């Protein structure tokens, strides 16, 4: 299992604590220091069943600078969105957990974290 975290994020710290309490084996990826490639992000999005705009943090300063809210949210724009998220990983919603069985969640709630532990 791998969890993408920003150590400054309370949701990330909570998810890691839940994994620890459950005795789960996992690898931490500090995705701001080790950003995903476009291919990795695309695979994670496919596992999530989401599009890049679904996991974009639109409240971040860089999102406002890029005016992401105005970007079209359509399949033809997917690569453009992924490119932005890879270039500016702070835009990626967190934490993201990818379980060994392929289950992948944006683990912002305790329920989402528990879903990869079952």
Summarize the structure in words.
With 118 residues, this protein is of the alpha+beta class. The chain has one domain: Glutaredoxin (3-Layer(aba) Sandwich). 40% of the residues lie in helices and 12% in strands. It has 5 helices and 4 strands; from the N terminus they run βαβαααββα. The chain has helices at 10-21, 38-48, 61-66, 78-87, 110-117; strands spanning 2-5, 27-30, 96-98, 104-106. Strand 1 (2-5), helix 1 and strand 2 (27-30) form a beta-alpha-beta unit. Helix 1 runs parallel beside helix 5 (110-117). 26% of the residues are buried. The model has no long low-confidence stretch (mean pLDDT 96). Pfam families: ArsC (PF03960). Belongs to the ArsC family. It comes from Amycolatopsis acididurans. InterPro entries: Arsenate_reductase-like (IPR006660), Thioredoxin-like_sf (IPR036249). This is Arsenate reductase family protein.
List the helices and strands and how they pair.
Blueprint: E1 2-5, H1 10-21, E2 27-30, H2 38-48, H3 61-66, H4 78-87, E3 96-98, E4 104-106, H5 110-117
Parallel strand pairs: 1-2
Antiparallel strand pairs: 1-3, 3-4
